[in-house]
Amino acid sequence: MFGSRRDGETVTCIACGEECPRADAREYDKHGDRWDRQDKSFEYLCKTCFTETCRQPRDGLEATLAAAEAGETDRETFLRQYHELADDQT
Ligand SMILES: [Zn+2]
Question: Which pLDDT does position 33 carry in this prediction?
Answer without folding.
Answer: 56
